[in-house]
User: Which sequence fits this backbone?
C-alpha cells in the first residue's frame, strides 16, 4: 500500500524536538498524526513509559508508528564532522556505536550527505528493533499488528525515505565506489 493513499489512519511519530518534524510530517501523512519526542529519538523505555504509550496507542487507534530522523538535525550531523566527540548521554553512545559499525561502509562514499543518511538510517533501525523487542510494548504492538517503520527526512527535497531503502542504497553505492 502507498503511504499517500492511507492518510486517514492514525499514526504516531517518534521524533527529536531539534528536528522540527511536525510540519513536514503533517504535510506528508495528514492531520491524524501524533508525536512523541525524545532527544535524538532515543527513548528510555521503562515499564511505566511502555504502559503509558500502549494506552495512548489504544486511545488514539494508532495503526502505525514511525521513527523519523531529519537529515539536517545538528545532533546527527556532528558525528560525521567529528565522530570522536565526548559521549555524555546514551543517545550519543548509541549513535557512535552505529558510526563505528558503519565506518568501513561509509568511508568510500563521496559526500557527507550520504554518509549522514546511512548513519541516521542505521540509528533509526536500531531504535526500531529495540522497540520491537520490548517485553510489554513490543509484544503489544506485535499482537495488535501495529506497523513500526523508520524514515529519514531530507529537507533539501522534502522527501521521506525508508531507513531500509537508505541502507540498501548506501551499501550499493559503497560497493560501486570500491570496485
Assistant:
Amino acid at each position: 500500500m502507498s503511504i499517500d493513499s492511507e492518510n486517514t489512519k492514525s499514526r504516531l511519530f517518534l521524533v527529536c524536538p531539534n528536528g522540527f518534524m511536525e510540519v513536514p510530517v503533517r504535510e506528508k501523512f495528514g492531520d491524524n498524526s501524533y508525536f512523541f519526542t525524545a532527544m535524538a529519538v532515543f527513548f528510555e523505555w521503562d515499564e511505566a513509559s511502555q504502559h503509558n504509550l500502549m494506552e495512548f496507542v489504544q486511545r488514539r487507534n494508532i495503526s502505525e508508528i514511525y521513527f523519523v530522523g531529519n537529515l539536517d538535525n545538528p545532533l546527527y550531523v556532528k558525528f560525521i564532522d567529528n565522530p570522536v566527540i565526548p559521549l555524555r548521554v546514551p543517545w550519543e553512545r548509541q549513535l557512535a556505536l552505529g558510526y563505528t559499525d558503519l565506518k568501513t561502509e561509509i568511508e568510500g562514499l563521496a559526500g557527507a550527505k550520504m554518509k549522514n543518511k546511512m548513519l541516521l538510517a542505521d540509528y533509526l533501525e536500531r531504535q526500531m528493533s529495540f522497540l520491537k523487542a520490548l517485553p510489554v510494548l513490543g509484544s503489544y504492538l506485535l499482537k495488535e499488528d501495529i506497523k513500526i517503520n523508520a524514515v529519514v527526512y531530507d529537507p533539501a527535497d522534502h522527501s521521506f525515505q525508508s531507513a531500509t531503502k537508505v541502507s540498501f542504497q548506501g551499501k550499493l553505492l559503497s560497493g560501486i565506489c570500491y570496485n
